[in-house]
Design goal:
With 350 residues, the chain is an alpha+beta fold. The protein is built from 12 helices and 13 strands. The chain folds into 2 domains: 4-141 and 318-349, Aminopeptidase, CATH 3.40.630; 148-295, 3-Layer(aba) Sandwich (Aminopeptidase), CATH 3.40.630.
Length: 350
């Protein structure tokens, strides 16, 4: 597909940007919850780029058919805007269309040598991933669960060790601490308190010690509070909590629609680490989604370990990608080859 690209400051589009953004998201990705304008606009509000944010618009036959958010951290490098709270690239592309990377760079001044993308999803961003020329790097293996049939059928198909371990963890928790219950929060009016409970748990753990935890008093906490509240107003946010004697010991923040439920955040009380309460909650969360038919897919958007892949019915790749000016493409590939060989050498030595 041949697109004509234009580049404008974020505010150039005014109020018209987000309705167009949501229309493309619905048309291409079925209204992907993490690409919903309510999520993306809140990202920009709470985590603005110090370099400013621009919108790349791709046009075909006079219609805007692609949108990307970019920023320029240096005079010669531009990259897609993607705070860590976004688990995939904030990029809307026509499905199946293979794009021309040089045409993207032509929208920038001649001294801009490289355009970087992070966390491109092989399910949605094939137009960039399959394009000729860019340097492509596998960034993660993501996992998902197809919510079809019954939970019992899904669970029986999991590896024997996983099923045995979850049963053992739950029996130990019941025996030593008492039985736990699953609490569900979906009402917008209750999201502030649910996100605050999540933040208090996370802040007491290693993320609190490293300064990366969400908390009711910090910017991350405010972001998730607002996102969860906004999406709950349209029935698209849910919090799963594992409760033991009125105490929350594990929590998961999720956003969803009929097609896709995304686990945004997960935490557990480290005082209960030996009981694997986070895994018990994951089991109960999956069971709830199956039994209530919330979505047809549960997506984790994580760099999955082998242990995490045991929960999945499907895996797919996520990629980082760099687009170079044509004159720089060959040298860049040589550098990329050297870097890859060094990584392989280091892996063999590990």
């Amino acid at each position: 597909m041949s697109l004509i690209w234009t580049r404008h400051d974020l505010h150039y589009h005014g109020a018209g940007l987000w309705p167009l953004w949501d229309a493309l998201n619905r048309a291409y990705y079925g209204g992907h919850p993490m690409l919903d304008s309510r999520f993306v606009a809140k990202l920009i509000d709470y985590f603005p780029s110090p370099h400013g944010i621009e919108v790349l618009s791709g046009h075909a036959d006079g219609d805007c058919t692609a949108l990307m958010l970019v920023m320029s951290p240096s005079p010669v490098i531009t990259r897609a805007y993607k705070p860590s709270q976004a688990q995939l690239s904030l990029t809307l592309l026509p499905p199946g269309a293979v794009l021309s990377p040089p045409s993207l760079l032509r929208t920038f001044p001649a001294f801009v040598a490289r355009l970087d993308f992070y966390s491109l999803d092989s399910k949605y961003h094939t137009g960039l991933i399959r394009a000729d020329g860019p340097e492509r790097q596998l960034s993660a293996v993501n996992i998902a669960i197809d919510v079809h049939g019954t939970f019992d059928a899904y669970w029986c198909a999991r590896p024997k060790n996983l099923r045995k371990n979850i049963s053992r963890y739950r029996n130990r928790l019941d025996r030593e601490c008492g039985s736990c219950t699953l609490r569900i929060t979906t009402a917008a009016a209750d999201m502030r308190a649910a996100v605050a409970r999540y933040g208090f748990i996370e802040s007491r753990g290693w993320k609190g010690r490293s300064g990366t935890a969400i908390h009711p008093g910090n910017r991350q906490g405010n972001f998730y509070r607002d996102v969860m509240t906004d999406l709950a107003a349209s029935g698209q946010a849910i919090v799963f909590e594992l409760v033991l004697d009125s105490e929350v010991v594990a929590s998961r923040l999720c956003i969803y629609n009929d097609d896709l439920l995304i686990i945004l955040k997960t935490t557990f009380d480290e005082d209960y680490r030996k009981y694997a309460v986070g895994r018990i909650l994951l089991h109960d969360t999956i069971q709830y989604v199956f039994e209530h038919k919330l979505s047809s897919t549960i997506d984790f958007y994580t760099g999955a370990t082998k242990e995490q892949q045991d929960w999945a019915t499907q895996c797919r790749e996520m990629y980082h990608l760099s687009v170079y000016r044509p004159a720089l493409a060959a040298p860049a590939r040589k550098v990329a080859g050297v870097r890859q060989r060094l990584r392989e050498f280091a892996a063999r030595r590990a």
